[in-house]
Amino acid sequence: MNERASRGSSAGGPRLCAILFGREGSVALPGKNVQHILGRPSLHYPLMAARASQIVDDVYVSTDSREILNLARPFGVKEIHRPAHLATNDALLEDAVVHALRTIEQTAASRADWYLILLCNAVTVLPDCIRQAADMLRCDPTADSVTTGSKLNMFSPVRARRLDPATGLLVNYVPSEVLGRFVTISCDRDRSEDCYFCDNSFTLVRREALARIHENQGPFKWMGNRIRFIEQVPGGGDVDVAWQVPVVEWWLQQHGFTETKVPY
């Protein structure tokens, strides 16, 4: 066990539980939570990383899917059976998180201090980054969480547009008079302030932030309000549409993954 891992709960540090979320149904990409990515079910990537980090005490899976559970069981997971009303297309992840937290705290022998939020369809997660996130939470006791993402200036609000329902014309997503108060408006995507997007590879969050989840800022309320950030190579993200599959495969290959090799 490496030096970082030795600072886990077994050494008197914070107790950390991982929760992997995924449900049976998917409209945009059917079966996305068990989609094969470089020859492996997608949910194996977050589970492999959580176990390889060596700082996770318990791993739970919240799902309504028997297939997801069967694929996850070799990793020694504990099961949370998600009720039907939290497994619909309209259900919010934040509500599934609340259900999982309550279930764990009603059944676990001891309460976790930190929770690692993982998604079955988010494969771009590395054990080193999980350990880095833990170090960041230790160093900043005021932070609610640490999450991952990338700089994507090509998707900045400066460049975003929407269709005006009244005219059918393309207009600024954020009105120029509002946007101009905060950033430089330019056709050069790198002249405005850098724009970062969460890729939902994982979030390491304090238990206290999850306990008040409905008071936190949206849209990702499980991250809390004071969010630290680990920048990743662009190309990550939770896979929701077919074109993302080759993108995340490219990302994994850039980090040493092949169909027969895991680089840790």
Number of strands: 11
Order of helices and strands: EEEHEHEHEHEEEHEHEH
Q: How many angstroms separate the termini?
A: 13 Å
* Proportion in β-strands: 15-25%
Please give the share of residues in helix: 10-25%
How would you sum up the major sheet?
7 strands, mixed
Protein model, in words:
- It is a single chain.
- With about 260 residues, the protein is an alpha/beta fold.
- It folds into two domains: about 5-145 and about 200-255, Alpha-Beta Complex (Spore Coat Polysaccharide Biosynthesis Protein SpsA, Chain A), CATH 3.90.550; about 155-195, no CATH class.
- It is about 25% helix and about 20% strand.
- It has helices spanning about 45-55, 65-70, 95-105, 125-140, 175-180, 205-210, 245-255, and strands at about 15-20, 35, 40, 60-65, 80, 115-120, 145-150, 160-165, 170, 195-205, 225-230.
- The radius of gyration is 19 Å and the shape is globular.
- Residues about 1-5 have low confidence and may be disordered.
